[in-house]
Amino acid sequence: MTDQRRTSTTSARRVPVSGSASGARTQGTRPRPDTARPVPPSAARPARRRTRRPTERRLPLGSPKVRLQVALVVLGLVATLLASRAIVVQGLDSAANAAKAAALMSVSRTIVANRGTITDRYGEVLASSQPAVTIVADPTQIATNGKLASAMNSKDKEKAAGAASAIADVLVTYLGGDHDGYVAQLTKPDTKYVVVAKKVQAYTYLQISDKLSQLGYVGLHRETAAVRTYPNGTLASNVLGFVRDSDDGVGQVGAGGLEYTYNLQLAGVAGSEMYETSPNGKIPTGQNVLVPAQDGVTYTLTIDAGLQYMVESRLQETVDQARAASGTAIAMNVKTGELLAMANYPSFDANTPGTALAANLGNRAISDAYEPGSVEKVLTMAALTDSGVITPDTRVIVPNQVMSGGRPIKDAFSHSTINLTARGVVANSSNIGTVLLTRQMDKSKLVTYLQSFGLGKATGLGLPGEATGSLPSTSLADNTRDQISFGQGLSVTAIQEATAVAGIVNGGVYNSPTIIKSAVTQDGKAVPVPVSTSKRVISASASSMVLDMMESVVASKVGVNRFPIEGYRTAAKSGTAERIDPTCKCYNGYVASFVGVAPVEDPSILVYVVVDRPQGAIQGSQVAAPAYKDIMKIALQRYGVLPSTMAAPVEPIEW
Amino acid sequence: MSALIDERQKPQEPGSGLRPVPAVQPGIGRLPFLLILAGVLVAGLVGLLMLQTRVQEQSFDLRQLQTQATQLSYKQAQLEAEVQQKETPAEIARQATALGMVPNPYGVYIDVRTGSVVGTQKAVHGNEVPNITYKSPEQKAAEAAAAAPAAEAAQPGDSTPQETNQ
Q: How far A24 CA sits from the closest chain B CA (Å)?
């Protein structure tokens, strides 16, 4: 009966008693009313008792009592062992064990942040980072094409023999380079690691790896890296700077220019991902903590790449023509202090800073201090007009030389005594006239003016390595005053000088220079950048008087054949100075420069060109002026500055 | 079961003084109960298995899609780099020169308020602004070799403050 019931459990149905045809389904057990079910004591009928199965045919198997006892003891021992182990694992060391288990399962991965992009004022990309890889090869693996040497048949061996050459073919297709060179690397004996190519675009690697798996070759692997590309190469490289690989080999660190100054912001913050894995990969329902990487800040510069390109090309021509050591050129928005172009030559390709001369990696426009020469006269005249000492028509008798500190000061052109107006002093660039006029003003006041024009201290542009230049103290000697009035005995950087002149012609309002227009984070939040600070340095009337004097440089008979730009009224000043050689602290060579602004009615753009150590012609008016003219012409057109409606007035420069 | 109930509810012989205690409704039988339990278990297990499979499948899909997304982002980066390269002023200058275009520094402006043209147009030949017209490195090298350094005579209007401070 019991046995029958056991077999009947295969039936999943209980049939009503009336269903007599159900016998087949229940395999002959007629489901009696509720026989096997324990019936609660309150049930009406007593439960049937089960009868013990007869055991008379059992074989003698020893004493069941002993057997039971032994089994019990053994079971007890095992249970005790297991229990005590469970207590140790779960009770005593639970935290440590749990941590160990978690560590075995969980994997943590760093998510590299993309380095921020640097663009020009119109969004043209000047520097950006791309995902890249370092391709490494395992020559040992290539030698057998990834198979066990013992398990290779002749076909495998044949394939493995040609593997290095075939892989090299693929590499040549996608990376270029030398087939035999690759083969040599891929077959290097006794190593499992050879770096085949660095800074390969990740997509290129994907293509290579697809091609290889198609062909059935193995042995190339990748290591994550990043590559910083400067699509414009040398363009504005001295401003942008360059990067080097970081010490951990994964990221990159700014090593010059803006890349250096804003390295922290550009680098962004690396994220991380922590997840649990099994041998089959990520556990889908496992713990998964993702901290996304914060990409670096995107910087938009005030630089105009198109103008920068033309300025650089023109500067290169100038420096090469003059066989000069170097040159810098600056184009600036007079009204805002924004730098539109800042060019250096010789320069370097930011993609390959390692191949450049160390001397060319910096930014001479901000790091090199030099004696400005006659361009300084603009600043002197600004001080003199603003303090009311002179007007452009102030008359001065200019002898052929003037004594200063026991030594004679002369003009660059020989002359007997001439009668010049202050305007004429500037137009002719007379040192003697400038000294005589400057002597009418308190000497400490001159230095104070020069300080207010930003000389003697860094402009705060935000680029690394900015020189301060040097300016005598307010208790300077008389002959030093004489010297600085025409640009000797003090030193400036090109950016200081350009900004000072821009401030003077900008109605007397000095705007500190800026090179960064804006910066935003990955999610579009603005990041504070150095902003231009404005201050009035001279009065508006003094400003227009200085412009008047500077315009006479172009419009008077001295410059009318050389400097005017067709259609525009311009104001300019040339400069030629002996160059202080920092190694010998003596004069060695010349610095030729030219600064100009246009249009005079409403000065908008300033261009300053400085050429260091020209050979042959040394005059700023010859070496630097042609470049100034071309750059200014292009800039005026580029920024839609309308031509002047009237011709430049010709004011008296002599009397 | 109904038969059972019927049997129980059969009236007893009168006079015995006994009447049947109503049976406790047995609800569901033992076997069916076990079977239901088993069924629930099996259904649960199968459901779980299906869920797991689905999750695995989806995680596989996810991985694949993530890989695809990464690969596409690589492709995008590469294409962007190419565009950036093609947008550079140097490249544009090269392309423009190849088309025979030359830079024109003599702009003419249209005043949109009055409709008048400001400035005068001028024919250009490409040599108006030295070195801005694109030249290939070979061209530059050839020019550098041919160019004789020209040193012009100094002209007045420019000071050379070399007399003092030496």
A: 18
